[in-house]
Design a protein that fits this description.
Blueprint lengths: L22 E6 L7 H5 L1 H8 L3 E6 L13 E2 L9 E2 L1 H14 L8 E11 L2 H7 L4 E6 L7 H7 L2 E4 L9 H12 L32 E2 L2 E2 L9 H19 L1 H5 L5 H18 L1
Parallel strand pairs: 1-2, 1-6, 5-6, 5-7
Antiparallel strand pairs: 3-4, 8-9
Helix pairs in contact: 7-9
Amino acid sequence: MKTSTKNAETNSVSTKGAKKSALFFSSITLFPEMFDVIRNYGVIGRAVKNKIVQLDCINPREFTRDKHRTVDDRPYGGGPGMLMKVEPLEKAIEAAKNKHPDLSTEAKVIYLSPQGRKLDYELVKQLSQQKHIVLLSGRYEGIDQRLIEQQVDMEISIGDFVLSGGELPAMIVIDAITRLLPDVLGHSDSAVEDSFEDGLLDHPHYTRPESYLDSDVPAVLLSGDHQAIEKWRLQQRLGQTWLKRPDLLAQKKLSDSEQALLEEFKVAYQAKEG
């Protein structure tokens, strides 16, 4: 069971006026300025402007008691580095939930951690159904295990490597989820046609000019034959997945027609490679 703390205030952005259907992100971070990059630009910036999503940043230093606003301390048992303390993070999580009291029981607290479940498309789709996501970005050597056990619902990793903090992974999670929300992308089919939607990688894309460095746009894309174009794109998606991510292809059950397209791709590729 998760513990509760006293009510706390934060100077993060107010939710007043936001659409009821919006997805709320609360980022707990020592560096809230980092999130201005996604809040103000690109796809996420437009989603924020259109109130499809809302992003609040809460700094744990606002909940410290000493004049130095200390959020870290030495680990018990010795060892290098410092750990983030329980109390400031716990109060920051509570403050995030209090920003949206009607969703407090539905808020999902996620700690960005190398020990977490690896982020993939299926997990992103699941998270896109949430209403309030609290993203906890660690620093130093991590955070006190007791906070993870008492306050965190899920740990997520973006790969088998270590970063200086959880802010960049948190931004990746926000971006990946937001682009799946209705009305976020410019074209209604963009998210549906993304790589991984059906377990395959994307097909190659081309634009003007038709010829570049002795390489031409595939003739089928200039034919105007939409059925042939769709067949070519499917074959390329199958082939690119075979070449680059055979692990994905091994998990997918291909139809007879898809298997035939893949075999044609393999023959053509092997002939080209000599």
